[in-house]
Amino acid sequence: MRKNIVAGNWKMNNDLSQTEALITDLKRESKTSNAEVMIAPTYTNLWQAYQTLKDNTIEVIAQNMHFAENGAYTGEVSAAMLKSIGIKTVILGHSERRAYYNETDESLAKKVNAALVNDMRVIFCFGEELKDRKAEKQDAVVESQIKNALFHLEAKAFNKIVLAYEPVWAIGTGETATPEQAQDMHAFIRKTLSEKYGSEVADSVSILYGGSVKPANAKEIFSKPDVDGGLIGGASLNAEDFFAIVSAF
Ligand code: PEP
User: Fold this and answer.
1) Which residue, judged by its Cα, is nearest atom 4 of ligand 1?
2) Measured at the alpha carbon of residue 159, what is the angle toward residues 206 and 3, in degrees to the nearest 5?
3) Burial of 200 by CB count in 10 Å (0-12 exposed, 13-18 middle, 19+ buried)?
4) Residue 210 alpha carbon, nearest atom of ligand 1
5) pTM of the model
6) Active-site annotation holds for 152
7) How far is the CA of 182 from the centre of ligand 1 (A)?
8) Residue nearest to atom 2 of ligand 1 (CA)
9) pLDDT by residue for the chain (249 residues), tens digit each?
């Protein structure tokens, strides 16, 4: 049975004291829910966040990592380094990484491999741009992103993969995909997975939606049968809003 997951991507926000303050708020707001809850602070605060939350159900995860184990990659962090401080899950392929740091499906395939070799779970992000949606090419774009980055994997690898459909036009814009648009795409993604790996694998993979999810729209989006949770940007920086979204399950 696939899991419901709500993950907060803090991006490049919150210094150490702000991270501590937000975690204090999150602990206060925390409610039991049917969803796994995760937060992704920035690198410099991962250790502190992990230590503070290690006896809590909120999992601390990373926003990115390099594909190499170590070496001459100035400014980068490896899966082994993340693991060494207790981090077990990493977000890969966020559209901001693709747009600003030239991440491609090919480089992301290497990152996915590195994460899996290190027994880490991956939240793999993808989604079409506005021009693709306007040209009704969203299915083709999403299909190629998934195939190019993930379809070299064996079926059993998918117990460590969570998918996050994030239409670029909905990220940080206040413009959300309608629940129907999200459901249509998630059903298409599951069908694509099923054609390659069979329905058992396809039905076991959690597919999150990301793009301007807020307390006001979370319930309707999460009520769709193929939407298993959300990747939350802006609204994850406020503990009350974040747990209002978690409570939508
Ligand atoms: C994101 O960055 O993954 C995201 C979904 O951002 P927002 O919720 O702010 O649109």
Assistant:
1) 233
2) 35
3) exposed
4) 5
5) 0.97
6) no
7) 14
8) 233
9) 899 999 999 999 999 999 999 999 999 998 888 899 999 999 999 999 999 999 999 999 999 999 999 999 999 999 999 999 999 999 999 999 999 999 999 999 999 999 999 999 999 999 999 999 999 999 999 999 999 999 999 999 999 999 999 999 999 888 889 999 999 999 999 999 999 999 999 999 999 999 999 999 999 999 999 999 999 999 999 999 999 999 998
